[in-house]
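Exercise (ungraded).
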Amino acid sequence: MNNATALFSMPFTRVLAVALPALTLFFSTPLRAADAQEIVKTLCSACHGLDGNGTDGTKPKLAGMNRDYLLKQLIAFASGKRRSEIMSPMIATVAPDDFPGLADYFSSQKPLPGKVRNNSLAAKGKSLFEEGNTDSGVPACAGCHEADGSGSARIPRLAGQHQDYILKQLANYKNRKREGSRLMFTVSQRLTENEAKAVAEYLVGL
Amino acid sequence: MTRRLLGVLLATLGCSLALAASPQSGWNEAYAEKTEALGLRGDLVRGKGAFIVCRGCHRADALGREDGSYPRLAGQHATVLIKQLTDVRSGRRSNPKMLPFADHHEISVQGVADIAAYLQALPVPANQGQGPGKHLTRGRQIYEADCATCHGARGEGNAEKFYPRVSGQHYRYLLREARMIRDGMRHNANPDMIKAIRKYSNAKIAAVSDYMSRLAVDRP
């Protein structure tokens, strides 16, 4: 007797007992995605935009970021490992079970290119991004963030990110308001103010 | 009989391993992290991943910079890489520029072994930074008289003895490090090496560095 005929010969209640959990499992993924969109609408979109591109330059662009990187940040905000006066209370209202759905949502949004305002500054930023500064020991950003700035599961996407947000994060690293990467603390210390501005100007157009 | 032969073989192997790892004077003492990393099996694929934090300076192909600001690591012996990396991490080789990127919070001990295995296997093209080429005959004489005994006739170094490969390396890096070793600024340097070049003039160091920078990596 194969499994299918075994199922038919079972009493109806027993069939249900087998089928219901299976059905729940089957539908849980799409339901979760719908939930994510609902959470984005009510909670995230005011700052990050429904398309994840950020509503102004101080709000980070999340569209196209690596899913695992986003998930890691959500968990870090929730645990207090990454601190933010804005994000911490927001995250506290979201169930950790919904984090993967949110990460999936934003990572699958299409990142829109930003606007370069100063081309010569951006050219200096390109050189720093690709070559670093061998005198001060600033490594090429591309070494970790990839040549196209797309990042990875461990390292954030920087391509297209808003200038103001990049500068704010570099300042946060430098002032130890953002911890969790001693490597970036070192980089933020070694960057001059002009270098930071230049690299931010390059990244927005990348 | 076979078992006894195997026993003898294993004992011999054990002895030679113990000799290789035996504590050597100051410059190459067997401290815990180094011994551990040398004993771990390095994985090339994991090494490639762990090397990501190094790429910003040493570049994606581990060929460093022609201006010598960062050395080539591709093709270097894994033992040498492990010694130098753990020496930097433990402060035996002072390198404040590099330390924040190579410290324990970025690279595990297994990561050190993996990176070393990965780098040793990388290809080494012959386009390294070279010197002015004006005193190559003198450079060769100096190399053959003082350097070849340890670093090898073709600059291939010696993995077992932790002597680095100098072939394929950038001229300006060789120049800078040789001067630092001469001047006692590289604290994990082999005393024999310091003795050999203690009285070298800058011109003599430049000539031999130029000669070394033209040695190609001729491994299979």
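Further reading is listed at the end of the chapter. For now, observe: Chain A touches chain B at residues 132, 134, 137, 139-144, 152, 154-155, 182-183, 185-186 (CB under 8 Å). DSSP finds ten helices and no strands in chain A.
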